[in-house]
Structures are given as C-alpha cells and as structure tokens.
Amino acid sequence: MAKKKKLAKYIVPAVAVVAIGVGLTVVLNLPEDVREKTDNTDATVASEAKIDVKVDKKKVHQAEPQVNEKGEVKENGTGTLLEYVPKDIKEIEVENRSSSYKITSYTPIIKETDENGKEVEKTDTTQYTIVGYEDMTLREGQADAVANDVAKLEFTKIASADGKNSSDFGFDDPQATVTITYEDETTAKIIVGDKAPTNAGIYIKFGTEDTIYIVSEEAVDSLLYSLNDMISLDVTTSAESGDDASMTEIELGGTLYGDTVRIKSNSDDDTVISNYLITAPLKCYGDDSNISEIEAGIRGIYADSVVYVNPKDDTLKKYGLDKPYATIKATYPDATISLIASKPDSKGYCKLMVEGGNVVYKILSDSIKWTQKSLDVLRSRFFVDNTMKAVDTCDVSFGKNKYNFTLTTDTTTTTDDDGNENTTSETKIFLGDKQLDQGSFQTAFDYIHGTSFERKGFTNETLTGSPAMTIKFKYNADVNRSDDTMKFYEKDGKVYITVNNEQISYIYKKNFEHLQKLFTTAANSKA
Q: CA 20 to 30 Å from 365, out of 126, 156, 187, 224?
C-alpha cells in the first residue's frame, strides 16, 4: 500500500496563501535564521520558482534555477523536480547512513475483457524486490513509500542557487544519496542533507547541479529507511484454515528447559480435564492455561523490528542465538515451525529467529511466552487429571477407614423432533451393594480437582514411613489408561503427595483433612 503524503504545515512569520485554480500554494517568507542559509538574495518567495527542468545528454534529470546578473534567484518559491508515477520506475539505488540496497520494480500487465467483450490490457499492482534479498518478504508499504517519493518530487523553496558553503547544509556527509532509473531509461539523483531550521523541511540536491532546495521532510523520509526497515516483520504466518490452527505436537528446548519437553494435543480425550499431554521428559497431563499461551506465540507472530539480516556465527553469538535460551518446534497438520530465541533482556525483549532462517527479529517475550515457562508450570495443576465417567473403581484408605467405591456410567442417546441426536450419561456410585448419593461422591471427587487442592509447586523433600492416606483410581477398559495411585505423607504441617510413586508437590493439612471428611460423608450417604 502506497504511503499517504501529508501536507506539510509550517508555523513561520509572514505566511501568504495564493489561490491557483482550485488548489492552494503556500508561499513562505522564511525567518532570518533560515534565510542566512540561502543565496543571500532579498527576493520575496513567489508562488512558483522559475527553474529550467531538463534531461541532459547522459539522460540525467537536471534542474537549474533562473538567476539575474548577480547570480541571484529571479523568483523563488515552489516547484517540481520530478513528475512520474511509481510504475514508471525501473530501479532505485539507496545509500544512506544505515545501509545500501537496490530496489527493483515490476508492474505486471493483465488482460481483461471489457463490457463490449473486447480484450484490454491493464496494469496490475507494482511489485518490488531488493536485489540479493529476493527470497525475503518486504514490509508492506515500505517500498511503495520509496517509489512514491522518487516518482514525484516537489520543493518549497530554493535555499541556494550556487550551493556555496554546502557543508553548512549537511552535504559533506549527506543522510542519503539515491539514484533512480526510470522505464524511459533516464536517471535521477537525489542527495539528502540536513534538516532546515524551524521545521521548514530538509535540504536536498538534485542531479549533478549545486543548487540546494528545501523539500518537506515527508517528501524524502523514506529515503532514510535502512535495509532492516524494508524487511517484513511477519515472523510466521497464520494458518489458512481452522483445521490447521491447532498443533499436534510441540517440542521445547534450549538452556531454559534443559531436557526436551514434548507436548501432544489431547483435546479429543473426554476422560480427562486437560487438552494437553506431556510425554517427555515425563508423562503427565498439561496445564491448559500455560500451554495455550505457548501455542499463541507460534503462528502469526509479528516482531517489533528487524535487527539483522543474514547473520554470521559471530552475530548469532552476539545476540545469544548460538546457544538459544529457548527453542520451540511445533507440528501442525499443514506445517512444522521451528523458532529459537535469546534470553529476555531487562526490558523484556528477545532476539528471535526462524531456525535456519536469515533474519534476526526483536520481539517482546510476552508475545512468545515459551521463553518464560518451565516444566513445572506446564504440568497440570491437578495431581490426577481424570473425569468420573473414566473411573471404574476408586479405593480410598486412611486410618481405619477403607472405602472401595465402584462407579458405573450409563449413556443414553435420544433423537429430537428435528432428527438431532442428544447423548446424556449418568454415573452411579456403589459401596459394596449399596448405591450412594452421586452428589456426595461428586463433591469429594471434584475437590481433588479444585483450586483448594492445586499443587503448590514441586519439592525435593525426603518422604519416609507409611502414607497417611492412599487413593487408587482404576479406569474403564475402554479408556486404555494405567491406574493412578495417590499417596499422602504428613510432615511439618504439610501433606506431601506422590502420584504413581513420583513426588509431585504438597497441600496444606486442613485441605487434606477436609478431603477425608468428604469421602467419609460420601461413604455414609444413600442414593
């Protein structure tokens, strides 16, 4: 999309506005500090400067102001140095203080049939590439902005006809030198100097002449773009369809994680709460909230800036990407995406690359939260992740209490008047032959999966002796899941829990005692 040009606004003394046709030309009597950098003429700025614009024998665009016998500009004011449209441009060579690069343009010709059935040719949108970087996607609008600025170039005043003391205008070390080749095989040269005082604009030279002009800053601001400014900030693209938006597997690595953490989608398993299954370095269910945040930082991410293009080994080391702090490899139905990132800096920014790519980006770590996680927070907050309909038996023992609960789930499918099927399920709870109140058991079961029973973090406490309580879940045959055994150990006012003999975390004693009461209430209930 082409850059929109804004009308420059100058707040200066003695502004006269002259109507020409249906437009307005702003005529400036610049302040004394600006006039000091002119050709020392006292001529009042006219509505339009008198200049001769031509193409020389070498096909270079030139402009020469008309001067009097003293070498002073006859009439100063506004004028036009170039008047093309972007599709007339063949290539643009930019050399500025940041970098050097060459833009080539191509405007496709498309054939259409008009309303009379006649085939006509029309020009399509102009396309741009940067020589040597043809495989890189350009940032939208940037190349258009450069092309617009060098297609039509207008000035607001002639600052110096003979260009004396050009160093005072910034031409000893110009901000940019730009050479343009047009489709008519002519060329133009624009040299950008310093900014003019009082926000009057910026100085330029045109062609090979010494004349110095003032143009609005917006007329040439794109000529100061660095190569990095031209490269797209889209690190990865979004999925084209909803079916491809969800990952099937994620691998996390780097110094942040140490051992590879492997996560699989588990969204089709309705016997568990979690939508994710961690399969390495251990097997457990994942925390939906934290893993969803990781997923959000893979596809369709947009960087804050481009830092470096085509980095060498020393550059990767400089940015902490030779041994990445965090890595991610995500597999989707339509693609596999691999990214590497540095450790976030004090302001929360990371350097980011597509693994094997050639662009280093800068991005907030909040946009790629896989640079902020750990195996601990990725594990499910619950000690066991299951649903009642998946459970066949639940054996609970503590002190002299031993409860062997049996669960049966009946599923019924009905069809409504519109032919839609509705499936309902009912779980019944038994203790021996006695059917219990389903709600009472549900309360105890849900308590294990509630906020009061979330693990408080991992611990390396040494556990000895017999457990104060044991809960064993055995699952239905069609679930294809191994038994889960929870063991509770009291120590120092806390209750530490292991699941399948792996020490997980702890809860507080009051929560542990409340759970015992809930199971006792369930065992004494009646349906």
A: 224
